[in-house]
Each structure stands twice: as structure tokens, then as C-alpha cells.
Amino acid sequence: MAKKHKILRTEDDISPLNRKLINTVCHKCNFYAEDQEYWESEYECGAYKLIRQMLEENKLTFEEIEDFFTRADLNPERELR
Ligand code: SF4
Questions:
Q1: Is 24 in the pocket of ligand 1 (CB under 6 A)?
Q2: Can you give the pTM of this predicted structure?
Q3: Is residue 6 part of a domain?
Q4: Distance 31 CA to ligand 1 centre (A)
Q5: Is the residue at 57 inside a domain?
Q6: Cys staple from 9: which of 2, 13, 28, 49, with CB 3.0 to 4.6 Å?
Q7: Is 18 inside any structural domain?
Q8: What are the pLDDT digits (tens) for 2-43?
Q9: How many domains are contained in the chain?
């Protein structure tokens, strides 16, 4: 962690679903800052909340998320279009 942050939550405060989402989605996100889930007061973006809701409503699975990521352009230098 480069900067000093005030720790707001520990691993015990993060539900198993959120932990899996952070590992599966946030760790591939260009906006993810190391360990942000422990110090950001509101670390969940709209896409994160949408994906979690879809998982909770059984409209999406982690296997499908992983499959989508095999085709997603994760290059942070890509041209916006
Ligand atoms: S919460 Fe959203 S913006 Fe933040 S790291 Fe996760 S996917 Fe990226």
C-alpha cells in the first residue's frame, strides 16, 4: 500500500460474496487500488453493485464472469470508443 490510509474494515467485515467479487472482478479492474476494500469508505462502483445483484438473483454466475473476461479488453492503454 503506497499511501497511508485509515483502515475502516477488516477481512471479517467482507462477506464471502464480496470477497469473491473483489477477487474476480476488482482485481482485473484498472481502477482497483491495492487493498482498497479495507480503507475506501465506498469502494463499490455501480458495475460492481449491478454484478452482485445479478449474482444474488441467479442471473449470472462466477463461471460466466470468468468466461466474459476471457474476451474483454483489459488493456488500460486501449483507445476509448
Ligand atoms: S468497485 Fe468497480 S471501479 Fe472499483 S475496483 Fe471494483 S470494479 Fe473497479
A1: no
A2: 0.90
A3: no
A4: 6
A5: yes
A6: 13
A7: yes
A8: 578 999 999 999 999 999 999 999 999 999 999 999 999 999
A9: 1
